[in-house]
Specification:
Length: about 325
């Protein structure tokens, strides 16, 4: 008999670690209705820790407040057997991390059209999260703070989804001068966050820029243990790069936030205008073809979804 969590029928456990467990499950309804969903359950042993429970509930509430084509949607939050469970959209596809690993093994970057489609979708998701109205109608000013290849899903039809708002902060809800605690991936963090400064929307611009750099070159921007407190390498130092694309990436990862793009929308605009000028295909079918052009690799360890400290990245195994 299949395990059940609440009214959901578990297909298999995807990952476990950190504060949660991840399951693929069936949601059943009247007659023959059913669909696959992902369940993120707070580990029962942590259910009595008020700090952990608050973090889990805050992530759930924040993610549930967002509704955008490029953000993984949240369906429900419920309590079962003394533990909270978050029900999320199941994305049938692969992470950008998996795609980058395949390309890294062959020392090539992604096709420029695929780069623009993926980065543009991320920019759209982040722009929406920052400007989405809260209960009072004012923009929420949500800063993701964890944009990285492992948090980008590419669906089998070529749609791109940003996931995991577990480390996000709401700029308008934080008292001035109060710095949020952080446990993210240093190699994708803006220097102002690493130095204890206040994050803002340009901090997410920087993280998208790092992802752009890695998609363009097929390599990691920083070696393990390095971060943006060090000198930023230009993309052309790692691989042949179209100069105009290299300039866009360079502006996105500027150490001084005043020299970066002011927001993700302006970054996306420059990328899409370049793609139009150079006639790069940015349609969904082209991205699907890119993803499918490499032989399948063994499934990636999904523990990064529930345990940030367990995450691995393209090229780490060789450096």
């Amino acid at each position: 008999m299949m395990e059940r969590i609440g009214s959901y029928e578990v297909i298999r456990r995807l990952a476990a670690g950190g504060m949660g467990e991840l399951f693929l499950a069936w949601q059943h309804g009247p007659r023959s209705f059913r669909r696959q969903v992902v369940l993120k359950r707070l580990q029962p042993k942590l259910a009595d820790d008020p700090r952990v429970v608050e973090m889990f509930l805050r992530e759930s509430e924040l993610a549930a407040s967002l509704s955008h084509a490029n953000v993984v949607s949240v369906h429900e939050l419920f309590e079962a057997d003394g533990s909270f469970v978050l029900v999320m959209e199941h994305v049938d596809g692969v992470t950008l991390l998996e795609v980058l690993r395949r390309h890294h093994d062959r020392h090539v970057g992604l096709p420029p059209g695929a780069i623009v489609r993926i980065a543009g979708a991320l920019c759209d998701a982040l722009h929406y999260a920052y400007h989405a109205p809260g209960p009072d109608g004012a923009p929420r000013r949500i800063i993701h703070r964890d944009v990285s290849p492992s948090n980008v899903m590419i669906r089998s039809d070529g749609e791109v989804k940003l996931i995991d708002f577990g480390l996000a902060v709401i700029e308008t809800e934080r008292p001035p001068g109060e710095h949020p605690t952080f446990d993210g991936k240093r190699g994708y963090l803006a220097p102002e966050i690493l130095r204890g400064g206040e994050p803002d929307h340009t901090s997410d611009v920087f993280s998208v820029g790092v992802v752009l750099w890695e998609m363009t070159t097929g390599r990691r921007m920083f070696r393990r243990g390095e971060d943006a407190t060090r000198e930023i390498p230009v993309p052309s130092s790692a691989a042949p790069v179209v100069p105009l694309l290299g300039a866009i990436v360079g502006r996105a990862v500027a150490l001084d936030r005043s020299e970066r793009y002011p927001d993700t929308r302006s970054l996306a605009t420059d990328l899409r205008e370049l793609a139009m000028t150079l006639r790069w295909p940015v349609d969904a079918d082209s991205l699907v073809e890119t993803v499918q052009s490499f032989d399948a690799t063994p499934p990636v360890d999904l523990s990064w979804i529930v345990n940030p400290s367990a995450r691995t990245y393209p090229g780490d195994r060789r450096r």
